[in-house]
Structures are given as C-alpha cells and as structure tokens.
C-alpha cells in the first residue's frame, strides 16, 4: 500500500507566517520551528506557496509594505497577498504573513492571524541603564490589555514595559522561569540564532488563561553598546512547550520556606528579578524597572556590585554580609544587611556565566541579634 501524497494545493486559503529571514513560524494553525519554506518535504509548503507566495512575502519584507499579485500557477489563477509585521520602536520588519486564494475569490481572504511584534532594548550597566520591552498595539491586544495611548507619559516612545515588569505582571508563575531564561539567553547570545518559547498568561480583564508563543533573536549586527532583541508573539490553541526550563529547585524552595526577605538579582543587568512577600514588607522603594543601582545609595553600590560578582564567580558559597543603604518609600534611606550566594551553574554554564543569578538574604543592619553586626561595627 503506497502512502498518499499530500494535495499539491493544500495551503490554499491558509495564512503562512515567517520571520523576516523567511524561516517558517506557522502554517495555518500548525506551528513550525524555523525550517525553510523552500523545503520539499511532506511538511513543507505546497507548490504555489513555495514558488510564488514565498517571493511575494520576501518582497513585502524587503519593501516594508503590503504586496498583492495575481499569478497563474499549477493550472490555476491565484491572488497572492503578503503583509509585513513591523517592530514597534524601530519600525524594522520582524516577520511576514502571506496567503493565496483563487483569483475569483480575491476579496475573500480569511481573517489575518494576529501577530504581536516586540523589541527588547538593553543599555550597558550604569546610572543611565535602561531595560525596556517595546510592544506593538497588536501585542497588547493579544495579551488582553488596553492599547496605551502612544503619547501617554508611561509610553513616551510607544508601548513598552519597564524592566522585568512584563514577566511579573503578565506571565503566569509556572511560565516565568522559562521567560527569564529566554531573556538571559538573549543577553549572552553571540549569534543571531532564532529562539522559540511558549508561556501562559492571564487575561487581565476576564482571568482567562492564554497560551502564547513567541520567537525572537539577538541583533548581533548592531555592534554598539546598546543591544536589541526582536521577535513576534501569537496566541496558541493549546499550551506550547517549545522551551521547557525549570528554575533552580533550591531557589524555589528557599523562597517558599524562608522567614527572611529574599531577592533574586541579575548581576549582569543589575536588576531585581523577583522578590518574596517578606521583602515587600521592608517599606523599600521598588520601582517598576527594579534597577538595583537606582535603589541603592550610590556610595554603597560599588561594594554591592563587587559582592554580587564575587558570588557569581564562586557559586554556592555565602558572601557577606554587607551593609547597604536602600531607598525607602518615604524618601529616606534604610540600612540593610545583604548576604549573597551565587546560583550554581546549569548545563554547559561555567562560574561567572552572564546567565547566572544571585540569591540575596536581607536583614536589618541595626538589629543587634543579627550575627554579623559586630563585624560591620569593626569595619
């Protein structure tokens, strides 16, 4: 019994989504993972899509505008349409979506898939450091949020999330480790490899759990200190497990049982990744961007940064305590004791890897019962 060949026009009326480099992201409701649309395999595109629609989509990417053509192919007359997906901050093309239908059905294209574009901009560590995720209007709609006015004070350059607020505000708890890991991969990436990731989010109005899928890459062509990462996000019909990453179980257990305030810090970006409930009771100023340098007394920050770096270089070893002044919500300063342990390397990581995090325990520096107090007084 011979295997039945796929229909030569099986993708007629189905929207095809690719990256700006023409790597397949999806065909209809079927996800793809960066394969070439020129592939002749059984999972590849049909003849019209591979030979003609692909060229129209490439044209849309290169020109940055919608393109529509009428062609004759495989004994039929077709109307082909391609639409570029533009990045929200720079306007670069990050993806394209294309579809073809019989020419007699020219005005009967199926509804276009909803694709949200995003750009992540990270500046070098320092007093003016920014860590910002820009999102397109469609991205906000996909996530269930009201599209912010482009001139709103919180969105001076369009729609964006500051620091790690995206993960804390939108992503469901079980999906947060994968998203944090994806960001860390982007930061340490020296190539422009395409990465895929799936996560779940809660609709802010209805509480519905949304299955979202994203793909993106680092822009290694930009050699300036400012780094850009770009990609797209779509809704999925079922939970996506493109990238299943578990957070260090010891960190999760520490957050669950500790009676002390704890924070998890990314020393490379100098921001607080997450904090437990007890840290929230310290009356500290915790802005959305969570930029550590802007939360700590400028005189104390170099010592704290050195302690964090030391912990990363020698993971799983307690470092400190160190007395540090943190800004409070009342506008003053509160001196706290910080003890740090660097995250143990995972997989192929080595000590000092940029993806490693630092777990910090916080205590009142003025508490005479704290064991480290005599040491601070002597220094």
Global outline: elongated
CATH topology of the largest domain, by name, is: Beta-Lactamase
CATH H-level homologous superfamily name of the largest domain: PAS domain
> N-to-C terminal Cα separation, in Å?
84 Å
In quaternary terms, these chains amount to single chain
Q: Tell me what portion of residues adopts beta-strand conformation.
A: 25-35%
Helical run tally: 7
The H-and-E topology, N to C, reads as: EEEHEEEEEHEHHEEEHEEHEEEH
What is the domain tally? 3
Mean pLDDT: 79
Helix content: 10-25%
> Which CATH first-tier class of the largest domain would you pick?
Alpha Beta
User: In order across it, which strands form the biggest sheet?
Assistant: 3-2-1-6-5-4
Computed structural class: alpha+beta
Q: Low-confidence segments, ≥5 residues, pLDDT <50? A: 1-6, 151-158, 242-246, 348-354, 369-379
What is the CA-atom radius of gyration, in angstroms? 25 Å
Q: How many β-strand stretches?
A: 17
The CATH architecture of the largest domain can be given as 2-Layer Sandwich
Main beta sheet: 6 strands, antiparallel
What does it look like?
By secondary structure, this protein is of the alpha+beta class. The chain has 3 domains: 16-85 and 93-105, Beta-Lactamase (2-Layer Sandwich); 116-235, PAS domain (Beta-Lactamase, 2-Layer Sandwich), CATH 3.30.450.20; 249-378, Beta-Lactamase. The protein has 7 helices and 17 strands. It has helices spanning 47-63, 137-142, 165-169, 176-188, 249-257, 301-313, 373-378; strands at residues 16-19, 24-27, 30-31, 67-73, 76-86, 93-102, 116-122, 131-135, 159-162, 195-202, 209-218, 227-235, 262-266, 271-275, 319-327, 333-342, 358-364. The strands form 3 sheets. A 6-stranded antiparallel sheet has the order 3-2-1-6-5-4, with helices on one face. Strands 9-8-7-12-11-10 form a 6-stranded antiparallel sheet. The protein has a 5-stranded antiparallel sheet with strand order 14-13-17-16-15. Strand 5 (76-86) and strand 6 (93-102) form a beta hairpin.
């Amino acid at each position: 019994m011979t295997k039945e060949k796929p229909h030569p026009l099986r993708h007629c009326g189905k929207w095809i989504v690719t990256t700006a480099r023409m790597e397949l992201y999806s065909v209809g409701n079927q996800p793809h993972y960066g394969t070439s649309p020129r592939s002749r395999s059984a999972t590849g595109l049909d003849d019209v899509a591979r030979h003609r629609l692909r060229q129209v989509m490439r044209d849309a990417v290169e020109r940055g505008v919608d393109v529509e053509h009428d062609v004759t192919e495989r004994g039929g007359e077709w109307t082909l349409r391609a639409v570029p997906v533009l990045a929200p901050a720079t306007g670069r093309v990050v993806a394209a979506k294309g579809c073809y239908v019989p020419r007699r059905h020219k005005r009967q294209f199926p509804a276009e898939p909803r694709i949200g574009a995003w750009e992540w901009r990270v500046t070098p560590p320092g007093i003016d450091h920014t860590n910002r995720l820009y999102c397109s209007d469609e991205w906000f709609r996909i996530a269930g949020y009201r599209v912010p006015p482009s001139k709103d004070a919180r969105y001076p350059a369009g729609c964006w999330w500051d620091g790690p607020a995206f993960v804390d505000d939108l992503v469901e708890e079980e999906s947060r480790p994968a998203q944090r890991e994806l960001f860390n991969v982007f930061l340490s990436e020296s190539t422009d490899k395409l990465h895929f990731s799936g996560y779940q989010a809660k609709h802010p109005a209805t509480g519905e759990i949304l299955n979202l899928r994203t793909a993106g890459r680092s822009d290694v062509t930009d050699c300036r200190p400012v780094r850009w990462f770009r990609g797209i996000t779509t809704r999925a019909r079922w939970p996506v497990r493109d990238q299943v990453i578990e957070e260090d179980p010891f960190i999760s257990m520490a957050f669950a049982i500790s009676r002390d305030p704890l924070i998890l810090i990314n020393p490379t970006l100098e921001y607080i990744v997450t904090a437990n409930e007890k840290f929230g009771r310290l009356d500290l100023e915790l802005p959305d961007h969570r930029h550590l340098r802007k939360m700590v007394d400028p005189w104390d920050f170099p010592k704290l940064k050195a302690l964090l770096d030391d912990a990363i270089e020698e993971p799983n070893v307690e470092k400190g305590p160190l007395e540090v002044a943190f800004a409070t919500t009342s506008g003053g300063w509160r001196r706290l004791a910080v003890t740090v342990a660097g995250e143990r390397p995972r997989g192929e990581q080595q000590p000092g890897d940029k993806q490693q995090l630092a777990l910090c325990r916080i205590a009142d520096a003025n508490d005479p019962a704290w064991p480290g107090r005599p040491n601070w007084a002597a220094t």
